[in-house]
């Protein structure tokens, strides 16, 4: 569980600190992995496979998220020629 | 005892490679570290008795998602590094502070769990016949509707990605 917390925190640091949006997406994958580790650890401890079922759902959602997010990155890069999130201020008021 | 040692070794590698993912200069190096990290997480699943999930992790993450990332890194060939332009309004220290606060919070919760351990639940599950059978049984009986919804979500995501990646948006 501490491992999961530490991995989660590394992912959050990645999201907050890096400017390359691809690396930010990878950090999000790390966060989802941390949650999965937690689910599997408790599933092992309680001898109950439901946690693993939920981990499978999380993997499916992560795959969907990665596909859509990378599509958005590609579309954005084609328009603006950047992957720097500081320059992604189209919707800023 | 051996299990504990294996757990700590795997955990150490997971954390090291996670840090490398976040700190790598080049996005390609970051992707490679991410693959290694996912493989170690799969090893951790296997050591925790979740063999099916370990296989899924390798197939979906290390096989599918990472290839997707590599394609995007390849398509997005940069003329100038994204870190060159620094936003003067950016608050990196605030990001670190928020992350540290969250780690503290999670640590407090975890230590609270250690101080007052949850009552040990009696093993109510059916006798374990095999991990894959068990997960598959649950997935197709109790969790059939979420399973179908997840497949629907994947379909929608696939169509959405195709639409987004089309030439003329």
Structural notes for this entry:
The complex is a heterodimer of chains A (93) and B (169). Chain A is mainly alpha-helical and 93 residues long. Chain A has one domain: Helix Hairpins. Chain A is built from 3 helices and no strands. Chain A has helices spanning 2-17, 21-46, 50-80. The longest helix of chain A has 31 residues, at 50-80. Chain A is elongated and about 50 Å long. With 169 residues, chain B is an all-alpha fold. Among the domains of chain B are: 1-78, Four Helix Bundle (Hemerythrin (Met), subunit A); 130-169. In chain B, α1 packs antiparallel against α2. The N and C termini of chain B lie far apart (57 Å). The mean pLDDT of chain B is 76. The chains are: A mainly alpha (93), B mainly alpha (169). At the A-B interface, α1, α2 and α3 of A face α1, α2, α3, α4 and α5 of B.
Label this structure with key terms.
heterodimer, A: 93 residues, mainly alpha, Helix Hairpins, elongated, B: 169 residues, Four Helix Bundle (Hemerythrin (Met), subunit A), 0% strand
Report the CATH architecture of the domain at 1-78 in chain B: Up-down Bundle
- What global shape of chain B is seen? globular
**Total number of beta strands of chain A:** 0
State the order of secondary-structure elements of chain B, H for helix, E for strand.
HHHHHH
According to CATH, what is the topology of chain A?
Helix Hairpins
The radius of gyration of chain A is 16 Å
Largest sheet of chain A: none
- Mean pLDDT over the residues of chain A: 75
Poorly predicted sequence stretches spanning 5 or more consecutive residues of chain B: none
Structural class of chain A: mainly alpha
CATH class of chain A: Mainly Alpha
